[in-house]
User: Which sequence fits this backbone?
């Protein structure tokens, strides 16, 4: 024996070698990706704990409003924006555009550094070269400085004053503060009526809301604020205001109205005047194409409902007059001071320049009077009507400087690009309300070699003898702190909250009276059968087209994404033989665009509409070549009173080209077919709803239907810890288990009386859960029929929206009144889930706390679960969206920095779906356990509920009475979708929408 | 003397299923059976050409699959919520094809239906290759096909087993069982024939292989006794599989709650459909074989006539099932169901439903005519329609149901892409490749069994030739048909 063991390898040794080499082979063989090293910090940065998020309070700069945000930052990267609950404007909510700011930050098409034009192309340069060039040009201006123009995106706070001071030091006139989508007509009228640009609006106090095209849910004004207030008002149910919308096109706001009065474009003023007793109702009704009885009833109702709230939206050449008439009407009805509150103004629009001023500057460029143009954050070459020939005018400027971060149409024409930091990388402040300072701080180090414009200006001032002393601060942060009341200490304290009372900057000087050189002609000029309504896209806004989340977010009204469309009335379409998807040309005297038709009940028969926001010829891979720009069609004319561009002004011809393109829509059937998915109840019938029985609700204490399909491992998971045999069998499914998991029932209520269909929840979900966008043109590669077409994957229904906003039509088949019902649809986490037993590999099962769990690693992709899901809320990874080597890769260079580190990026070929933000649930539980306490009621919520600007979504533990969700689930209006038919025991409870029919209910209204 | 007369008009036109002894009036003796059948094994140019086409199709399919694995399933036509597409349609199609083979070889054997003898080998081979083809599709259609083994219950330290409630797991068992049993059955039936091939083979290597495969068959009485037992046992074992396998496949649909799938009718409906489609495929394969292999005297019109009757019967069953589905939807009072079935007939998928109804319900009614039943050309044409119709039956079941489910917001459409078509073509290539290889390596007609139905060749000197029956057994035998031995 000893001899034999000496010869050769011994058994033990052999096994060791076998084990070691096997492990090595496995370790090497299994890692398909490159080997990365984990290097610990040598000097640990302050505040950074690996795996734990920091939240930096800052200000959202995606539109002019200036909502407060919290930048969720981990290990030096900001990956999510959440609403700042302490901020008075948005109170913790955040719209889709705000959510998408991170996609601007990590946008793959951002300028990497300064660029200098050499010949036809912009070439990368160093900052020294770039600054030197600009300094040289500034010095060389001499007397021409007075002709130089600085176009800045509109913002409030101290930067505008800083900029003006800097410009003045260089002999350049004050900058023009531009926001293409701000309602300048209303701002001008408010200034005239109340002395403020934007009064607060108290929707809750009103008994009746009448909107003349004021789309306060589509981005009009401070849209998150208005939406919060509106939803709160509607949540009063019996005491809620009725809402009447007057306009040629039913926008998202219009769809939330109880009554839509479709008028001919341009007749709003006549109606408003008639309602306040100036002019005859019959004449107005006749001009507007409305039944006079409807207007009379409305007049009566306005008279009776006190207080009411009447709103006007611009867009027409007489927008200011309309707004003034409406202000007068409010005055007359005694609404000012009750629902219209000029003494608590929203100051987000103070200091804004009118479109006419920008237009004049452009004319001066054309005349060769502008030696230097500086542009920051605005894109007039895209937003201005093509008839204004902006590009041609800009080309005449000898030296053009852009501070844009993105290669947009305007900056592509410039000679020097000094890319600005993204707001998430910048210091600053905003003044959203008179006494509220909203501070802006960077969440992280800059992604690219960019510089904050204010810092660039400071650096330029250093070498300038006239400006040097005034701009001695080393950087803009220091400049801000130096001016902050209380200095560094107070500033630091204020930063923690993100808001402080008071004001950093002086109130902007009143803008000079508007002198309009090119007044717009009244509505209805031009040849053609149809009035053309151009409205700002509520989803994309002015700058959203390069953000795939926004491109992929279906328009709340039409449910179309990655595309432009022409809205045509149903009757008109029938008359002209137009179907949705038929390619139409829309032609005005100014130009022509080609886009597919969308046949829509919610537009006046004599009107066609196009959304503004698509049709970029530059602006990066996501925007370029997608859709058409209605600016091609518009005449250049300004409202003579406010200088606002008249968007609804001209008539258009439409013609079929004979081609057809499927609409890139997420809508299947727009009708419920009586299936009770989105239910509504008239306000009078609220009292007749039966009380809910406890056992119908997800919080059923007995947990009778809980859990559905148990984990195969649960029995063993805690076998040693459980004492009794029963516990060993049930594991964590035993309510007596120490984890207490089985005592919980995570559930959600969605109040359809609050939900406006804005879809902020959808984008929040994309941001939180690393959901890939699939619609970009390059992602449609290999999608046979739609090769290379933007939205190709979405035409095939492959969008990945874990939560989607369904918009069902009710009524209107005969051309009469119709209603829109919005219903957010997500995984219902059924107690008796049809998806669970059909999965052959146990990739989906029920967790003890009531979640329907999807195990990505186990999933082999049979997709049977999706077939068996009645709600169709499971989404499959058709391509390797997470694989950089594939054309469908959803996060090209730097976009991947946005990914939430708490959530797996799903691989090709697996199913995924809403998890009820499992990572947040577990984080809260772990935090509570670490702190030795129970999870507090309403301690945390899901991403969708958190973002919701209507507060319609409430998440929590329905088995615990202390959570709000448990009470809401017992509401009389509560119902489940498909539960009666399919016995699914969903954890999502919908509360019925409440409709407010017209009091007299005039027929045809 | 046991010679056989020329075919008579009476035998040709007469009703089918006479006494087994007169099945093949045109076959003279055992030697001719051996010669004629083994003669089919000589490769020809046409065969090489056919095989090349089959392999080309297979390669196209394989390339498409490789591309699909690399890019993801999105290259196929899936349009959610249509999460199952052409692959599942084709899977059910091929499983169905298999069933006729087992029916013919096993069930009809138990029922002593004489006409099965000449076509059973072809049908059984078809079964094995069809199941081999079908078995690929559940893997092809997986999102992560490299993880297909998760569906197999193998012991592992994570204690994770497949979900035995899922019909897809039942499928795995059903298909594997079916493949095993039908392969065994085919092989057992082949043993005496392999021995016959071995005995004629001159090439030493081939002779060795045939020798091994024939398990040293020596044609002894004892071997025949065991053989008959084994054959009978396997036939009995296969018989319930004909019913159970396709029932399990139907459960993939029936166990779900999808409108259009969720029906208790599905198991018998699928079984009847499977047999129907399988007989269609038997015609598609058998009629050209009969012609090009010069086997008209072995596969007689009587056999085709009998098979056509079976085809007609199953067509009627399938038609009844179609109508029952509509009736149940109509009487269910279930909106989802009613709306779906209305949509099936008159909505976006009407074209496919009508293809199905015409091919499977209407055209086979022609088989009520005996003239058409005995017309191989018509049977061949009809069989093509049946193949198409039955593929569309599965299409109608899988795709319109998924595209028109509970949630109207998610109603959708579906269109296959070139990858779907390439893989579909590849499946035909794969099947044809195996079948073509089979027909030139192994006898496509069971030599031994055909010999059972012709009179034995007897030595003149045999003392009591008249007392040996067709199976070679001595017995006192009175021919019941005058002229039978004429």
Assistant:
């Amino acid at each position: 024996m000893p001899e034999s063991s000496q010869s050769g390898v011994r058994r033990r040794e052999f096994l060791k070698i076998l084990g070691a080499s096997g492990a090595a082979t496995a370790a090497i063989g299994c890692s398909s990706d490159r080997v990365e090293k984990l290097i610990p910090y040598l000097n640990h940065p302050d505040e950074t704990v690996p795996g734990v998020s920091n939240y930096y309070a800052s200000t959202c700069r995606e539109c002019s409003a200036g909502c407060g945000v919290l930048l969720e930052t981990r290990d030096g990267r900001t990956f999510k924006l959440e609403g700042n609950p302490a901020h008075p404007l948005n109170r913790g909510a955040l719209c889709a555009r705000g959510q998408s700011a991170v996609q601007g930050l990590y946008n793959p098409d951002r300028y990497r550094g300064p660029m200098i034009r050499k010949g036809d192309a912009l070439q990368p340069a160093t900052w020294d070269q770039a600054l030197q060039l600009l300094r040289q040009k500034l010095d060389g201006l001499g007397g021409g400085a007075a002709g130089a123009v600085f176009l800045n995106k509109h913002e409030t706070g101290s930067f505008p004053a800083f900029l003006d001071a800097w410009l003045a030091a260089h002999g350049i006139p004050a900058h023009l503060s531009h926001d293409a989508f701000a309602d300048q007509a209303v701002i001008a009228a408010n200034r005239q009526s109340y002395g403020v640009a934007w009064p607060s609006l108290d929707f809750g106090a009103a008994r009746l809301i009448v909107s003349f095209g004021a789309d306060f849910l589509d981005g009009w004004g401070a849209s998150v604020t208005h939406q919060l207030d509106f939803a709160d008002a509607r949540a009063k149910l019996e005491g809620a205001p009725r809402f009447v919308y007057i306009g040629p096109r039913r926008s998202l706001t219009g769809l939330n109205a109880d009554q839509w009065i479709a008028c001919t474009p341009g007749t709003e003023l006549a109606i408003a005047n008639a309602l306040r007793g100036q002019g005859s109702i019959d004449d107005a009704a006749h001009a507007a194409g409305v039944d006079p009885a409807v207007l009379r009833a409305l007049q009566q109702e306005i008279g009776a409902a006190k207080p009411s709230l009447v709103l006007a939206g611009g867009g027409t050449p007489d927008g200011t007059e309309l707004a003034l008439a409406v202000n007068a009407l409010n005055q007359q009805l005694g609404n000012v001071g009750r629902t219209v509150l000029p003494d608590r103004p929203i100051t987000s629009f103070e200091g804004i320049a009118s479109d006419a001023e920008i237009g004049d500057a452009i004319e001066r460029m054309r005349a060769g009077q502008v030696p230097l143009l500086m542009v920051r954050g605005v894109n007039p070459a895209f937003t201005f009507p093509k008839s204004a020939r902006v590009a041609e005018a800009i080309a005449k400027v000898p030296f053009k400087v852009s501070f844009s971060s993105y290669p947009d149409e305007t900056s592509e024409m410039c000679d020097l690009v000094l890319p600005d930091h993204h707001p998430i990388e910048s210091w600053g402040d905003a003044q959203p309300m008179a006494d509220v300072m909203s501070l802006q701080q960077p969440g992280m180090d800059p992604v690219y070699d960019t510089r904050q414009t204010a810092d660039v200006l400071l650096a330029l001032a250093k070498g300038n003898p006239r400006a040097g002393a005034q701009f001695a601060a080393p950087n803009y942060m220091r400049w801000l702190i130096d001016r902050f009341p209380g200095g560094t200490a107070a500033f630091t304290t204020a930063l923690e909250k993100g808001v402080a009372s008071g004001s950093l900057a002086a109130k902007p000087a009143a803008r000079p009276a508007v002198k309009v050189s090119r007044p717009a002609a009244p509505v209805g000029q031009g040849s053609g059968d149809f009035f053309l309504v151009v409205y700002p896209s509520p989803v994309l806004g002015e700058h959203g087209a390069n953000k795939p989340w926004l491109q992929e977010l279906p328009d709340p009204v039409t449910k179309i994404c990655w595309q432009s469309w022409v809205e045509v009335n149903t009757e008109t379409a029938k008359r002209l033989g137009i179907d949705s998807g038929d390619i139409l040309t829309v032609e005005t005297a100014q130009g022509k665009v080609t886009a597919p038709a969308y046949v829509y009940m919610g537009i006046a028969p004599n009107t066609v509409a196009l959304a503004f926001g698509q049709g970029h010829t530059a602006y990066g891979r996501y925007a370029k070549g997608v859709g058409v720009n209605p600016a091609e069609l518009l005449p250049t004319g300004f409202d003579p009173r406010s200088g606002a561009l008249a968007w609804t002004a001209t008539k258009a011809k439409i013609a079929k080209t004979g081609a057809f393109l499927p609409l890139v829509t997420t809508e299947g059937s727009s009708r419920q077919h009586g299936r009770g998915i989105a239910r509504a109840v008239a306000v009078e019938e609220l009292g007749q709803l039966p009380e809910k029985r406890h056992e119908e609700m997800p919080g059923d204490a007995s947990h009778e239907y809980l859990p559905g399909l148990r984990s195969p491992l649960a029995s063993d998971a805690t076998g040693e810890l459980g004492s009794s045999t029963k516990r060993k069998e049930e594991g964590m499914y035993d309510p007596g288990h120490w984890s207490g998991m089985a005592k919980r029932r995570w559930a959600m209520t969605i109040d359809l009386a609050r939900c406006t269909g804005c879809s902020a929840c959808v984008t929040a979900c994309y941001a939180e859960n690393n959901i890939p966008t699939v619609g970009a043109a390059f992602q449609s590669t290999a999608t046979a029929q739609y090769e290379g077409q933007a939205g190709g994957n979405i035409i095939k229904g492959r969008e990945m929206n874990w939560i989607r906003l369904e918009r069902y039509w009710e009524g209107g088949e005969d051309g009469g009144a119709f209603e829109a019902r919005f219903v957010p649809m997500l995984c219902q986490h059924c107690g008796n889930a049809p998806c669970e037993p059909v999965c052959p590999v146990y990739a989906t099962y029920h967790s003890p706390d009531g979640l329907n769990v999807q195990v990505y690693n186990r999933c082999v992709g049979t997709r049977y679960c999706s077939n068996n899901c009645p709600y169709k809320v499971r989404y499959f990874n058709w391509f390797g969206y997470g694989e950089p080597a594939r054309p469908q890769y959803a996060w090209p260079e730097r976009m991947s920095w946005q990914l939430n580190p708490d959530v797996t990026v799903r691989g090709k070929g697996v199913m995924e779906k809403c998890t009820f933000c499992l990572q947040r649930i577990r984080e809260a539980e772990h935090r509570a356990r670490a702190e030795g306490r129970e999870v507090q009621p309403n301690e945390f919520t899901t991403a969708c509920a958190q973002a919701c600007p209507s507060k319609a979504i409430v998440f929590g533990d329905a088995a615990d009475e202390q959570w709000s969700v448990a009470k809401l689930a017992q509401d009389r209006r509560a119902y489940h979708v498909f539960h009666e038919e399919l016995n699914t025991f969903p954890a999502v409870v919908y509360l019925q929408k409440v409709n407010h029919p017209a009091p007299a209910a005039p027929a045809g209204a | 003397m046991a010679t056989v007369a020329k075919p008579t008009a009476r035998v040709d036109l007469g009703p089918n299923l006479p006494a087994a002894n007169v099945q093949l009036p045109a076959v003279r003796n055992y030697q001719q059976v051996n010669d004629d059948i083994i003669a089919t094994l000589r490769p020809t140019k046409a065969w090489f050409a056919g095989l090349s086409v089959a392999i080309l199709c297979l390669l196209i399919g394989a390339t498409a699959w490789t591309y699909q694995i690399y890019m993801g399933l999105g290259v196929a036509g899936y349009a959610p919520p249509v999460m199952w597409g052409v692959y599942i349609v084709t899977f059910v199609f091929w499983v169905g094809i298999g069933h006729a083979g087992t029916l013919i070889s096993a069930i009809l054997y138990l029922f002593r239906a004489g006409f099965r003898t000449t076509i059973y080998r072809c049908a059984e081979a078809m079964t094995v290759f069809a199941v081999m083809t079908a078995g690929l599709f559940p893997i092809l259609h997986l999102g992560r096909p490299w993880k297909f083994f998760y569906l197999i219950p193998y012991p592992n330290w994570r204690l994770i087993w497949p979900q035995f409630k899922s019909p897809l797991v039942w499928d795995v068992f059903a298909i594997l069982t079916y493949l095993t049993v039908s392969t065994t059955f085919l092989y057992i039936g082949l043993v005496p024939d392999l021995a016959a091939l071995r005995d004629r083979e001159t090439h030493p290597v081939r002779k060795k292989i045939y020798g091994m495969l024939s398990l040293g068959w020596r044609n002894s009485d004892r071997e025949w006794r065991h053989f008959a037992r084994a054959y009978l046992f396997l036939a009995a074992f296969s018989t319930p599989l004909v019913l159970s396998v396709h029932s399990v496949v139907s459960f993939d649909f029936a166990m779900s709650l999808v409108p259009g799938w969720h029906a208790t009718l599905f198991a018998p409906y699928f079984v009847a459909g499977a047999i129907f489609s399988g007989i269609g495929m038997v015609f598609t394969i058998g009629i050209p074989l009969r012609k090009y292999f010069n086997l008209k005297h072995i596969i007689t019109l009587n056999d085709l006539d009998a098979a056509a009757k079976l085809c007609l019967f199953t067509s009627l069953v399938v038609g009844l099932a179609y109508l029952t589905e509509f009736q149940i939807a109509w009487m269910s009072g279930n909106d989802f169901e009613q709306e779906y079935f209305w949509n099936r007939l008159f909505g976006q998928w009407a074209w496919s439903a009508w293809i199905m109804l015409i091919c499977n319900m209407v055209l086979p009614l022609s088989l009520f005519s005996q003239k058409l039943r005995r017309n191989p050309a018509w049977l061949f044409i009809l069989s093509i329609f049946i193949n198409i119709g039955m593929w569309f039956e599965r299409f109608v079941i899988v795709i319109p149901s998924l595209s028109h489910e509970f949630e109207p917001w998610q109603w959708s459409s579906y269109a296959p892409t070139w990858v779907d078509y390439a893989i579909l073509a590849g499946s035909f290539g794969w099947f044809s490749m195996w079948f073509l290889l089979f027909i030139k390596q192994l006898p496509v007609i069971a030599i031994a069994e055909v010999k059972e139905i012709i009179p034995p060749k007897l030595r003149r000197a045999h003392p009591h030739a008249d007392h040996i029956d067709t199976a070679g057994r001595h017995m006192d035998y009175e021919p019941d048909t005058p002229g039978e031995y004429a």
About this structure: Residues 761 and 944 of chain A are 4 Å apart (CA to CA). The longest strand of chain A covers residues 651-660.
